[in-house]
Design brief:
Length: about 180
């Protein structure tokens, strides 16, 4: 492109910008936030300039308005996709946080229960484990240890009461410690 043609093209661009910039800003402000409008305008005039170098555009004003509208729509689509992606990421992160928290809480509760069972007297602990963890019947446990079913029931009741107290006591202590942090 010759220097004269380049100068002529720059003059046409200045004139086009003078005539179309205010109405374009007005039209785009209904579609986009202000910080996007300047980028869309710049890109619009750049596209016009590149197309004009290829050959004359018959209706430059209409062309500029159509390009600006299409760019604005593309920007809106991209923004929607980005927002949806960010929301998906946030939901995924929240799910992972909740899963990790619940897994941690479950592990802590299991540890509390294990500690509670471990602190039971020997025979009570054995009866409790056979009944609650291995699902043995009162009758089966009675035959294993050679003690009455009523004694089995008493050991299980004692074990349940002890475990409940142990877990409550340690959960309350832990909650107080967390509140102090």
């Amino acid at each position: 492109m010759s220097h004269t043609n380049e100068m002529n093209l720059q003059r046409q661009l200045k004139q086009l910008m003078k005539e179309t910039k205010p109405p374009l800003i007005n039209a785009l402000s209904r579609m986009l936030p202000r910080y996007d409008i300047d980028d869309v305008l710049q890109e619009t005039y750049l596209i016009w300039y590149q197309k004009q170098q290829e050959g004359p555009i018959q209706h430059s004003k209409a062309f500029v308005f159509r390009v600006a509208r299409n760019l604005a729509i593309s920007r809106l689509r991209n923004t929607k996709v980005q927002v949806a992606y960010q929301q998906d990421c946030a939901l995924h992160d929240m799910y992972i946080d909740i899963s990790m928290s619940s897994t941690l809480a479950k592990n802590q509760n299991q540890q509390l229960l294990t500690n509670a069972i471990s602190s039971l007297p020997s025979l009570c602990k054995q009866v409790f484990i056979l009944r609650k963890l291995h699902g043995k019947s009162h009758q089966e446990i009675s035959h294993i240890f050679g003690i009455s079913i009523k004694t089995i029931e008493n050991h299980i009741t004692k074990g349940m009461h002890h475990c409940r107290q142990h877990i409550t006591r340690h959960s309350t202590t832990k909650q107080k410690a967390n509140n102090e942090l």
